[in-house]
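User: For my dataset I need records formatted as: sequence, then structure tokens, nothing else. Please produce one.
Assistant:
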Amino acid sequence: MALEIESADVIRLVLQYFKENNLPRTFSTLQEETGITLNTVDSIESFTSDINNGHWDTVLIAIQSLKLPDNKLIDLYEHIVLELIELRELSAARSLLRQTDPMIMLKQLQPDRYIHLETLLARSYFDPREAYPEGSSKERRRAAIAQALAGEVSVVPPARMLALLGQALKWQQHQGQLPPGTSIDVFRGKAAVKDEEEEKYPTQLSRTIKFGGKSHPECCKYSPDGQYLVTGTLDGFIEVWNFTTGKIRKDLRYQAQEQFMLMDDAVSCMNFSRDSEMLATGSQDGRIKVWKIQAGQCLRRFEKAHTAGVTCITFSRDGSQLLSASFDQTIRIHGLKSGKTLKEFRGHSSFVNEAQFTADGHTIISASSDGTVKVWSLKSTENMNTFKPALGSSASEITVNSIHLLPRNTEQFVVCNRTNTVSIMNMQGRSSSLSAPVRGRAETLCAAPCPLEESGSTV
């Protein structure tokens, strides 16, 4: 079902922006030309409290930007005139009675009621019995007016238009339409385009971060927006580094106070959400935690995510679910909102070393120490395909260490296994190309596809 946005709501958002940015003439002109009113106050409780306590200077300022029914405005102004007469503020009462629009309207529509106010104003004394009908009083009139006006106004959060624009941009980032960390021309609806630089491989060491012997890093990750470098260590600490200086970032308050993010066991894997705001970490005891990286706050714990160490973890495209794999030979999906395991994928006969969502979000691809790569249906959890990427008669037991989807050719992925060869396969299990052999007897652990290469096949 398509969502429809009322044009009147758009105008109210603009009116709120004018009001908050002190543009009263522009506010009044737009309200007059469109006939649409904002009718909001900062707090209904404060608004009615001012009326009940007779803070009329504050009330009159508040109603200047409101569009109220004529009869309720007349009741309000009439009562203010009566209270000014009681206080013997006769000059102010006379000005309000003879020069304001609601009182001029009262004179035209109900002349007897208006003459009654003029009579009270001309007297040298004030008699409440003449001012208020039988059974009424100043306090009751205030309460009745407060209740009537409270029904005409509402409260909305401040800066709604800017907040909605921010949410829309964040959603575009979630959907991959706006790369994280880029600036956006909101008016034209286009992201700022940077001149593409020729990508070059590193030729020199930039910085070295040293760890203690019993706290060496088990994993590390850059955030998608390039703002954070995070490490997870053997002793369970999760630390954010300044990659320029190689030192702990002290601009994050929790790290400055030495209140680090922490797991109960060695940190075995980690990954960021697409917007770089959340970090998920897995540990050797099968637990998973989700953190708000800016505050160091733990947002969600999965105490029994797996029965053995977590080998990999990744967020779904919209950031609402986590995909994890484990030494317990399973792949699982966990819901961030519910805090529960939603689905489980079984079929590998050894450790699952990696699992990833495919680009379309409908399938999962996994790599295992049993020598296979499997493709799973996200909806049914069924195994759709099983591939054995290693070559030769003894290939069935050669561990697949990692898989990497090509960014510009989503039907293909890179396979790194315990051989000195890197292969590129497609979703049907065919090797579309084979890289040059790695020198020596080393095994390939991982690879990094080049995101800028046009064909998407440079690794």
